[in-house]
């Protein structure tokens, strides 16, 4: 019976065949221990000299790292293994013998590993991160579908920028200028006017020359937009969404979290409602924490966000930022026009902002005023203005960065490990 490692527990005490790669091996005289992987998981294969032919035992001891194999044997319980099972190997068939595999069990530097990202993905830690990323994606679709959202795909090539062109990648679109999208939000607003509640899930691009552990040039965003929804209602949906994906990972990725030595007690504490502080309160907190140079009206950097997060065990919303440091489409607070109805959700443990969202301006005259203030072309943005001309309504939305969220939930230090093939300031290979 041919099966996979993830399904092997259903064949307890039965003989099965696995198609695998050899991740590592060791031997102690009369026993060879093979660390096997097949993409669905990892399992140890035990080859006992007395139980196999001399040819099979000799083969087991001579196998090279990352050779591909068909391995046949009995699945038995192993309480010492995090997986809980191992295979008592009876037969080995080599499919392809690998030689001089570059990523050995010794330590390698990050640049070497990034140069070999196509192979580094095979390691147990990277496998666990990708599995958790997949679970977050799966949970995202489940959450928004059950909440009545419709999946909409905005364009990746655009003729204009959502928040200015300084951080956009320029390209030529036949005889027109075009850009790689930095956000699908404006298009999602149009979709919300047609379908009520919508979300997108796709790649976005920022030509930001940043080398921090929180930034990628190409990353994935989940961007919901909601018609007839207030800022407060949007915050409640954000809380529910984040709680849902964390719970999904805790439920379905116990082995992967264990592989990463993740402190799951921190994740179990991610329960709504999340604490909320205003930008004004955040400024005062930072001054009390020693950031005496921070002034009202300045945006927060990574050290500021980390310092604020240290005061909370859960994600924290920072609300009501100054109007002048936020995007043109954010709705002013009706009680205070120098701040907008917005919020950034700051993850605990120093992972920074994972969500940015706001109520959107729905007043036509105010939006026209914003166009003038930001020197936005009505030729490029006329369609967006139409959303305020024809049946304008209160609406709100937000965007969650997938890779930062994966980094936080997995506990890895750098976002470059949270996407299969990262694009960084000086990296376009492989």
Q: Could you characterize what this model shows?
A:
The chain is built from 13 helices and 19 strands. With 430 residues, it is α+β, with helices and mostly antiparallel strands. Helix 4 (124-146) crosses helix 6 (231-252) and helix 4 (124-146) crosses helix 13.
Strand-residue fraction? 25-35%
Uncertain spans? none
Determine the N-to-C terminus distance: 37 Å
In one word, what is the shape?
elongated
CATH fold description of the largest domain: BirA Bifunctional Protein, domain 2
The major beta sheet can be summarized as: 8 strands, mixed
Q: Strands across the major sheet, in which order?
A: 7-11-12-19-18-17-14-13
| Overall residue-averaged pLDDT value | 96
Integer count of domains = 2
Number of helices: 13
What is the subunit arrangement here?
single chain
Q: What would CATH call the class of the largest domain?
A: Alpha Beta
| Rg (C-alpha, Å) | 26 Å
In the CATH classification, which architecture of the largest domain applies? 2-Layer Sandwich
- Beta strand count: 19
Going by helix content, strand content and strand pairing, the class is alpha+beta
Pick out its properties.
single chain, 430 residues, alpha+beta, OB fold (Dihydrolipoamide Acetyltransferase, E2P), BirA Bifunctional Protein, domain 2, five-stranded mixed beta barrel, 19 strands, elongated
Helices and strands in order, then pairings?
Elements: E1 2-3, E2 15-27, E3 31-37, E4 42-48, H1 54-62, E5 68-77, E6 85-96, H2 110-115, H3 117-120, H4 124-146, E7 150-151, E8 157-158, E9 170-173, E10 176-180, H5 185-195, E11 197-205, E12 218-227, H6 231-252, H7 254-259, H8 264-268, E13 276-278, H9 279-288, H10 302-309, E14 316-319, E15 332-333, E16 336-340, E17 342-347, E18 352-359, H11 364-373, H12 378-389, E19 395-401, H13 402-410
Parallel strand pairs: 1-2, 4-6, 7-11, 13-14
Antiparallel strand pairs: 2-3, 2-5, 3-4, 5-6, 8-10, 9-10, 11-12, 12-19, 14-17, 15-16, 17-18, 18-19
Helix pairs in contact: 4-6, 4-13, 11-12
């Amino acid at each position: 019976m041919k099966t996979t490692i993830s399904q092997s527990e259903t064949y307890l005490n039965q003989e099965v065949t696995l198609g695998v790669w050899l991740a590592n091996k060791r031997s102690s005289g009369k026993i060879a221990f093979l660390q096997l992987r097949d993409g669905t998981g990892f399992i140890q294969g035990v080859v006992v000299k007395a139980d196999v032919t001399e040819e099979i035992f000799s083969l087991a001891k001579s196998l090279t790292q990352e050779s591909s194999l068909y391995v046949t044997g009995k699945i038995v319980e192993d309480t010492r293994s995090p997986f809980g099972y191992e295979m008592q190997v009876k037969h080995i068939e080599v499919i392809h013998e690998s030689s001089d595999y570059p990523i050995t069990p010794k330590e390698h530097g990050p640049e070497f590993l990034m140069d070999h990202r196509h192979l580094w993905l095979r390691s147990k830690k990277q496998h666990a991160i990708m599995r958790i990323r997949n679970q977050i994606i799966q949970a995202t679709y489940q959450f928004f579908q059950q909440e009545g959202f419709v999946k909409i795909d905005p364009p990746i090539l655009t003729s204009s920028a959502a928040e200015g062109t300084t951080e956009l990648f320029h390209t030529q679109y036949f005889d027109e200028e075009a850009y790689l999208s930095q956000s699908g939000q404006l298009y999602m607003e149009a979709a919300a006017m047609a379908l009520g509640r919508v979300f997108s899930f796709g790649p976005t691009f920022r030509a930001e020359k940043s080398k921090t552990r929180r930034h990628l040039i190409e990353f994935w965003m989940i961007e919901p937009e909601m018609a007839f929804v207030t800022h407060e209602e949007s915050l409640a949906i954000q809380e529910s969404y984040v709680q849902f994906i964390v719970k999904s990972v805790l439920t379905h990725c116990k082995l992967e979290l264990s592989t990463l030595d993740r402190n799951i007690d921190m994740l179990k504490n991610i329960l709504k409602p999340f604490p909320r502080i205003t930008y004004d309160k955040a400024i005062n907190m930072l001054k009390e924490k020693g950031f005496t140079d921070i002034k009202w009206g300045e945006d927060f950097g990574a050290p500021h966000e980390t310092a604020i997060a240290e005061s909370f065990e859960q994600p924290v919303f920072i609300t009501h930022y100054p109007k002048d440091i936020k995007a043109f489409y954010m709705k002013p607070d009706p009680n205070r026009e120098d701040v907008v109805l917005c919020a950034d959700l700051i993850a605990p443990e120093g992972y920074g902002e994972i969500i940015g969202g706001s109520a959107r301006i729905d007043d036509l005259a105010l939006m026209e005023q914003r166009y003038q203030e930001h020197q936005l072309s009505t030729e490029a943005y006329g369609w967006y203005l139409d959303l305020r001309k024809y049946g304008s309504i209160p609406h709100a939305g937000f965007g969650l960065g997938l890779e930062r969220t994966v980094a936080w939930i997995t506990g890895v230090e750098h976002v470059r490990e949270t996407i299969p093939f990262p694009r960084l300031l000086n990296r376009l290979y492989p």
